[in-house]
Write a structure and sequence with these properties.
about 0% strand; about 280 residues; MetI-like fold; disordered C terminus; mainly alpha; 12 helices; 2 domains
């Protein structure tokens, strides 16, 4: 019996070792382009395209970062942060109200509303650029951060409603019934009971919206024209140049755009995973 237990433990140890090796290999393959970009952004311009290439710069420099900061990269990043933050707040607020209403209240047209939400999610954003640009222009919101945040909110709201709807269904309804017995209104029940319990789903939805709003290029380049409203992905595009690639500033701006999102995901990854799987219990 003891020999069998020992053999089982050895097999389990080898399985964990193999799984760990595979996971490390996948992580290295996934992160290598980012690490290469960070390394190249620290190289002098003449060494970025040298052959054979070097993984680590022998003469690291911050000249490319200094240049993009002189060229208002910090302002573009601030624009992206403001638009992304406003989009996340608006979509979570409206999405929580909409998802809770669909999950807990029976009303005429509920099924049709859910079908409409799924249908809207299937519409390509590119097909909406012309009508939305016309609408923003008529409202005087074209080439503004407010207009951009409103568009991002409209694009991402159906997805957030659908995500939170599934998660709200997985929560025990008895907790809300107890709150209603204690005199809570539906809005108070949502704010004091449902929202605290739904933190993982809210964080997962917020990360989805944040990645879209922070990384979006197509909508931003169409809806904005002035440098004062330019976001970071649009600014990166200008480093492509007409007569050649400015690889140093291009890589530095790309790293500046990527690292904040990676840092946020690293900090909030446990909430993201639980939020993505929690809604699978029901619905």
């Amino acid at each position: 019996m003891s020999a069998g237990v020992a053999a089982h433990r050895r097999r389990a140890a080898w399985r964990r070792l193999v799984d760990g090796g595979v996971n490390v290999g996948i992580a290295v393959l996934a992160l290598f382009p980012i690490l290469w970009g960070v390394s190249s952004s620290l190289k002098p311009q003449e060494r970025i395209l040298e052959f054979p290439p070097r993984l680590l710069p022998d003469q690291p420099t911050l000249e490319h970062y200094a240049r993009i900061l002189r060229e208002n990269a910090g302002w573009y990043a601030l624009n992206s942060a403001l638009v992304s933050g406003a989009t996340v707040v608006a979509t979570l607020l409206l999405g929580a109200l909409g998802g809770y209403a669909l999950a807990r209240f029976a009303f005429r047209g509920r099924a049709a509303t859910m079908i409409l939400i799924v249908a809207i999610m299937s519409i390509p954003i590119a097909s909406l650029l012309v009508p939305t640009f016309t609408a923003l222009s008529l409202l005087g919101l074209a080439d503004t951060r407010v207009g951009l945040a409103l568009l991002y909110t409209a694009y991402q709201l159906p997805m957030v409603i659908w995500m939170l709807y599934g998660y709200f269904l997985s929560l025990p309804v008895e907790l809300e019934q107890a709150a209603r017995i204690d005199g809570y209104t539906p809005v108070q029940t949502l704010r004091k009971v449902v929202i605290p319990l739904s933190r993982p789903a809210l964080i997962a939805a917020a990360l989805f919206v944040l990645v879209f709003a922070w990384n979006d290029f197509v909508v931003a380049v169409v809806m904005t024209s002035s440098e004062a409203v330019r976001t970071l992905p649009v600014a990166i595009y200008f480093y492509l140049g007409f007569y050649g690639r400015e690889w140093g500033p291009l890589l530095a701006a790309s790293v500046m755009s990527i690292l904040p999102i990676i840092a946020i995901f690293v900090v909030l990854q446990r909430y993201f995973l639980s939020g993505m799987t929690g809604g699978s219990v029901k619905g």
